[in-house]
Amino acid sequence: MRRPVDHSAMAVSGYTVPWYAPAGAPIALHVSISEPVRDVRVARLDTPTPRVMDWAVKTVGERPGRRDFHQGSFLRVSAAEIAKAAGIEGVSFEVYLTRNDGLRVLLETGSLRLGLRDGLLTVEHGGRQFRIDETLPANTWLTVGMSSNEGGTALRIRSDDALSPLDFYRQFDLPWKDLSGDLLFGASASNDIRSLNAKFSSIALQTENGPVAWTFPALLPTAALASSGASEVLLLEAVNQPAFCMTSRRWDGSSFEPRLVPSHYDAVHCHDDDMGPLQWPASHSLDIPSEAEAGVYAFDVEYDGGSERIVFFISSASRRSALLFLVPTATYLAYADEFLPAHLYEWLCEDRGHRFAIDNNLKSLYDYHSDLSGVSISSYKKPKATLRDDYNYPLCGCPHNLPVDLHFLRFCHSNGIAFDLITDHDLHERGLAGLQGYQAVITGSHPEYMSVEMEHALRTFAAQAGSIAYLGGNGFAGKVAFKDDLMELRRSPLEAGRTWDGPIAEQSLSITNEPGGHLRASGRGEFSLTGVAISLMGFEGARPFTRTPESHLRAAEWLFDGVTNETFGAGGIVLGGAAGYEVDATDPHLGTSPDTIIIARATGFPDGFVHDATRWYEGGASERATRRCAEMTLRPLASGGLIFSASSVAWCGALPGAGDMNDVGRITLNLLTHLAAAKSRPDPLRQQQKDGSQPAATQGSTA
C-alpha cells in the first residue's frame, strides 16, 4: 500500500547508498523532505566538535521533495508472464491466514478478486459482488482452488484443521476467462487496500500444457522465482521483502532444520507493514576525497527552520594506526526506527525519530508486525530516523548507541589516541583480512549483534595475538546474517520477553539457513570469547565500579595507573554512571574461562534492574541476590593478547568531555595506550606468503 512520507515529526528523512565506504569512493544521498532545501554539506561527527568539511556535494537527479513508502509485501506474476501461458484453466495455492481486519485480498487478477472482509470470504468478478457467509479460519493451512468448470467458475477451499474441518465448495454462474493483468496474491492492483497478513505456499496454474508451479526456497532468493512443470517458464516476484524460510503445510515437527527438510520450509510470510529496500531517487552525491580520514560523517541537510543529519561512515582501506574501532552498525540497524508503543513503554523523554517511526508505521528488528509476528529483516536503504548524534532513547531519557560511541571517539581525538575504523558490515565482508596487522580491535558501547563470520574473525584475531577492548555491554550476543543491504535477525525464547520471541521452528535465517537466536547457542559468542554476558538491564540510575583485590595484582595493576580511588565512575551521560542500562557479569557454568580476572564490580542496582532470565542460580534467591552486579574483567590470552571487558553499555558515556579527565578516562587511556604500544604481532598471512605454510589458527573453518 502506497503512502506519502509523514513529515510531522521530522522535515527531512533519508539514507545513503552505500551506508559505509572507503575514501575515494562515491556515496549518494536519498532524501524525502517537506521543505525547500537550502544547502547540503558534509559534517564530521566524531571530532570534539562537529566539523563541516569543505567537500563538494553535487546536486543530481530531480529536486528533492516528499517521497512515498510502499508498505506491505505480496506475490506477483506479471501480466507479461501470464501472457506466455497457454490456456490457463485454474489457479491454486496454500495460504495460512494470520490477523486481518477490514478488506483484504487473497487473489486478484483482472476483474476477478477473491478476498476477505473482516474474515468473511468475498468474491468479485466483472463488477459483480457475491456474498458468501463463510468465515475463513486463521492459523491453519487452507488449500484454495479456482478453476473453469462446466462453463462456470468453481471455488473450493479446504482446511487442515481436523478438529474444525472446512470443505467449502461453490459454483458461480460466471464464465471462466483467461487470466488477464497481473496475478496478485495478497494485494490489489489498486494499491489502496492493505496487503494480506498470511503465509503462502504451493502456488500453481493449470494450463492446457499441464501445471505451472512455484516452490518457495528456504534460502532467500536474489531474483524472481522460475516456475517448474509445463514448457512455459513463468517468473513470480516476491514484492517488498516478505519473510522466507517459513514452515509450510508440510512441516510436521520432525525437524527444525531447513537444510535437512527444505520442503518443510517452502512458505513465505507476507505482512501488511513489510518494507523492503527503498528506491528513492538520489538528490545529492559526494566523491569522498582520497585523503579523507576514516570516521563518522553525515550529510547535513539544511532547510528553512532547521537541519537534519543523515549519517554515513568512511572506513579504513589500509592500516594507518595500531588500533581499529569497530562501528556496531549491526546494532544500529537492529534498533533503527524502533516503534516503542506508548501502551507498552513509558517514555522518559521525547525523540523526534521515534515519533517519525510511529507516524510512518516504520518498524525496527525489535518490533512486531501487525499480525504479532516478529520483524526479522531490514535494509539500510531506508530512513534511520533514530540514528543521530543528538539522539536520546525514550526508555532511559539519555543518549544511546551512536551518540555514546561518538562520545568515546571524541575522547580519543581529544587525548591523541589514533585509530582506524571499520563497520560491522565491513568486518562481515572482509573477515579476518579486515583485522590483520592491528594490535587491537575496540568495540563501541553496545556491539550486541554479530554474524558468524564476524565472530569467527574476532576469535581468530585474538588467537593470533590480537587484543580486544570490549568497551560496552550485552555484546557478542545475537546472531545476524547479511546480504547486500539486508540484515536478518531471528530471535529465540532466550530473549525472555524483552522483545518478540520467534517460534522455535522458524529461527533459521533465510539468508544462510543457519540457526538464528543467540551465538551462545551455537558454541560461540559472549562467554566463550569475553567471559561475560548480560546479567542485568534497567533504565534507572547507573552505578559506579569498585576495584577488586585482583585488580592490584601485577597482571592488572597497569590498567589503574594514576587511579587513586577504589570506586570510580559515579557520573556519565548514560543514566549518570559507568555501570548501567545493560551490564555484564561472569558465569563459569555458562562458559567463563578460568583465566578471566574480575578487576572491578558494580553493585547496588535499583530494583528496576531485572536479571537476565537465561541464567539459573543453584543457590536460589539468596545466590541470585548476590549476582545483582556488573563485573569488569581482563582476560590474558595464551597468544599474548588480551580481552578487556568494560561490561556496561554506560561505560563510554562515563568518559570525560574535552579538556577534562576522570578515573574512567584514565583507565581507558591506560588500556588504549598499552594496546597500541604492545609488541608488534606477527602477521600470519604474510608469514604464509613467505614460507608457504598455513597458520594453525586459520586452518579449516568453524563457520
UniProtKB/TrEMBL annotation:
Residues 263-656 form the N,N-dimethylformamidase beta subunit-like C-terminal domain. Residues 686-703 have a biased composition (Polar residues). Residues 679-703 are annotated as: Disordered. InterPro entries: DMFA2_C. This is N,N-dimethylformamidase beta subunit family domain-containing protein. It comes from Mesorhizobium shangrilense. The lineage of its organism: Bacteria, Pseudomonadati, Pseudomonadota, Alphaproteobacteria, Hyphomicrobiales.
